[in-house]
Amino acid sequence: MLGIVRQKMLRQSLQTIRPTVTVFRGYSSAAKQMTIREALNSALDEEMSADPKVFLMGEEVGEYQGAYKISKGLLDKYGPERVLDTPITEAGFTGIGVGAAYYGLRPIVEFMTFNFAMQAIDHIINSAAKSNYMSAGQINVPIVFRGPNGAAAGVGAQHSHCYAAWYGSCPGLKVLTPYSSEDARGLLKAAIRDPDPVIFLENELLYGESFPVSAEALDSSFCLPIGKAKIEREGRDVTITAFSKMVGHSLKAAEILEKEGISAEVINLRSIRPLDRATINASVRKTNRLVTVEEGFPQHGVGAEICATIVEDSFGYLDAPVERIAGADVPMPYAANLERMAVPQVEDIVRAAKRACHRSVPMAAAA
Questions:
Q1: Which of 38, 47, 90, 339 is flagged as catalytic?
Q2: How far apart are CA 11 and CA 2, in angstroms?
């Protein structure tokens, strides 16, 4: 298989690969609407067209066009040499992908869900993440691991885990969490072009959601910087940090809070590792309050890391204790009513922001 890809690569070796151009702009007023699914598909298509070393592999990515139709049309356009259907063996095809990256190719490994990536975590951590350091910089591993992460709906504990904190704790990896369609396009392009292994955590429930996409973001050279958060909404009273689907919840909470006289600043983290500590600290030093939001477990979570950062760098600016909103500290229930209780809701964020702004009775006093 790799021999075929190699021959294809050599036949096109004289083609010029465009350099990475980083564009960092807000939404255009005349923006086009695009779903997350379309944004990811277009990013894959453009990067595969630009660089013959890029190929996609995973379960059902070819003939079935992806479990979530992210790879729709790619098999017909690029053929089975570069869009490879694999057996149901995550450890096997992830190892093949890492080996291809050692050789200089740029694999994109799709997991049907990141819960299944646990079968391949040895290759992701020990083979991909550590090789550059252990080889004293002689080996780069330009590979992207992507797929849906976190809670979906009615799929139970074994298919609902958020892995942002897991992979975010590992040196050698970059961990990206897109929220909008511009995020999906710009961050996936950056991940594919990056010389190091990237964990790209999507959200199944967002695939069909439409977002405005500026003309700049539709350009094939568009790319977002890894490690840079985005202030989705400016505010002065409280900072709310979130990533992936929780950004949408936080923006809805900010709208509700505005009606009650509370101005909330919402930060879309975009990147878990590296974490944009500078943007978070600057916001907290302005608002003097912080609410962190995530779907994952509370212990050792992304919010816990952000809390530690603020205590270390901006403790003197806080006018209230940091509020942490996270998933319940239990395996995800299957029953719909219990599932809703286990995942942060808009009203949870509103209550936390009001507590931080001293607009409601603290939980300890109300208990």
A1: 90
A2: 14
